[in-house]
Amino acid sequence: MKIRMSKFFATAFFILLLLMVVGCTEKKETKTQDENIKTIEAVLQNSLTGPSDEMKQILNSESGKKFEALNQYEQKLFKDYFANETSYTDFLNSYGSLVMIQPNSDYYNFKIKNIEYEKVDAKDSVYNFSVELQFQKEGSEKSEAGIVTGQANLTEEHKIEGMLIRTKDFWSSRSKESNEIRDKYAKDGKVLLLVAPDPSLSAGKPYGYLFNFTAPFETFKGKELAIYAYHKETGEKITGFSPETIKEPSTGYSTLERFTVTFAVPKSGLWRYEVVLDGEFYADVVLAVKE
C-alpha cells in the first residue's frame, strides 16, 4: 500500500512540475512577444502618425541647418529601437521621417486607428503587421482610411534587425497625378536614389531638396555630378545643380545619403529630376510642384 501511494505522489509531483515548466515557457513566450510588439508599434506610430508640429517646424524652416535638425529629430524617434547602426541607417534611408514628407507636402494629417500583428515563425521573431490609417486634409471635415502592411524582424533583445513598410500600394490608390509621382529610383530591384523635396515646394521660388544616394561613396568620388529638371508637359529643361566633382561625402556621413541642393523651377506641374554622373544618366524621380 505504501509503495502504491509513493508511486501516486511521485506521478502527481511529476505532472505538477511539468505543468509549471510549460506555464513558465508560455509566460516567457508571451512576454517576449509583447516586448517585440511594443518595439514594432513604437516605430510604426512614429513613422505613420503626423506630421508632428515639430517636424513641420523643421521642414518649413529657412535655416541652413534644416537637415541637421531633421537628423536629430529622427534619432530621437527611431534609433533606440534598432539593433545596430546598419539596421537603423537602412530603415532611415527607406522610411524614417521620409514617410511623412509626402503627407506634409499635400497637407494631410495621419493617425493610426488599429494595428494587427501575426508572428510568422514560432522560432524566429518575425512579425507581419497590418496598419489601418486614417487621414484627413487640413481644413476638411472628411476623413479617409487606408491599409499599410509590412514585416519586422527582431533580435532576442527586442530590437529591430530589418523592417519593411509597404507604402507604395497605399500611395498608388491616390489620384492619377499622384500615381505618376515617383520619389525613388531603383535598378535591378535595388533602390539607388530617394528624394525628399521641401514640403512647401511651389513654382518660382528656390526650395531645398534632399537627395539620398544609397550607393557607396566610391561610386561618386572624383566624378562629376549634375542634376537637371524637365517639365513633363512642355519638356522645358533647367539646371538644378551644375556639374561638380564630388570630393567629400555628406557632412557627418560616409556616403552621399544626405546630399542637399536648393533651386527654383519656373512653373507648376510634374517635373522629372535627372541625376547625371560623368555625363551619363544615373537616376531620376518625378515630383509635383504646386503653383
List the SSEs and their pairings:
Blueprint (H helix, E strand, L loop, with lengths): L1 H47 L4 H7 L6 H13 L6 H10 L6 H5 L2 E12 L6 E12 L5 E12 L5 E7 L1 H5 L3 H5 L3 E4 L2 E8 L9 E7 L10 E8 L5 E9 L13 E5 L5 E9 L2 E10 L2
Antiparallel strand pairs: 1-2, 2-3, 3-4, 5-6, 6-7, 7-10, 8-9, 8-11, 11-12
Helix pairs in contact: 2-3
Account of the protein in words:
It is built from seven helices and twelve strands. It has about 290 residues and is an alpha+beta fold. A hairpin with a 5-residue loop joins strand 2 (about 125-135) and strand 3. Helix 2 (about 55-60) packs antiparallel against helix 3 (about 65-80). The longest helix has about 45 residues, at about 1-50.
The succession of helices and strands, N to C, reads HHHHHEEEEHHEEEEEEEE
Major beta-sheet overview: 4 strands, antiparallel
Write down how many β-strands occur, each being a DSSP E stretch of 2 or more residues.
Answer: 12
The radius of gyration is 25 Å
- The total count of helices amounts to 7
Give the N-terminus to C-terminus distance in angstroms.
96 Å
Strand order of the largest sheet: 1-2-3-4
Mean pLDDT: 83
Helix- and strand-based class? alpha+beta
Shape type: globular
- Beta content: 35-45%
The helicity comes to 25-40%
Oligomeric description of these chains: single chain
Contiguous low-pLDDT stretches (5 residues minimum) are 12-31
In short:
The protein is of the alpha+beta class and 291 residues long. Helix content is 32%, strand content 35%.
